[in-house]
Amino acid sequence: MKKAFLAVAGGSMFMLAACGGGGGEEEDTTAAPEQLYQQSCATCHGENLEGNNGPSLEGDLDEGHVLTMIENGGDGMPANLLEGAEAESVATWVAEQ
Questions:
Q1: What residue segments make up the domains of the chain, in order of their start?
Q2: Superfamily for the 33-96 domain
Q3: What is the 3-class SS of the chain, one letter each residue?
C-alpha cells in the first residue's frame, strides 16, 4: 500500500512540475508607451502631446530631459507618475514624436 501511495504521489508531483515550467523567462507585462502616456500623461499634456493644463510636448525634446521630469517632477508636475522601464519607454516615445 505504501508503494502504491508513493508511486501516485511521486507521479503527481512530476506532472505538476512538468506543467508549471515557464522556461525561466519572465513575461513582459509593461504596457506600450503610447498606452502608458494616455493613462498617466494625456490629462495634462493632451492626447496628442499638444498640451492641456500642462505644457505641450510637441517639438524637439531631449529624452533625458523628459525622463528627468517624469522621475523628479517639477513646474507643477508630480514626481514618479511612471517609474523604471515604464518611465524610460515613455520618455523615449515622447522624444521620438
A1: 33-96
A2: Cytochrome c-like domain (1.10.760.10)
A3: CHHHHHHHHHHHHHHHHHHCCCCCCCCCCCCCHHHHHHHHCHHHHCCCCCCCCCCCCCCCCCHHHHHHHHHHCECCECCCCCCHHHHHHHHHHHHHC
Along the 97 residues of the chain, how does pLDDT read in single tens digits? 555 544 444 555 544 444 455 555 555 566 899 999 999 999 999 999 999 999 999 999 999 999 999 999 988 999 999 999 999 999 999 999 9
Largest CA distance in the chain: 77
pTM: 0.68
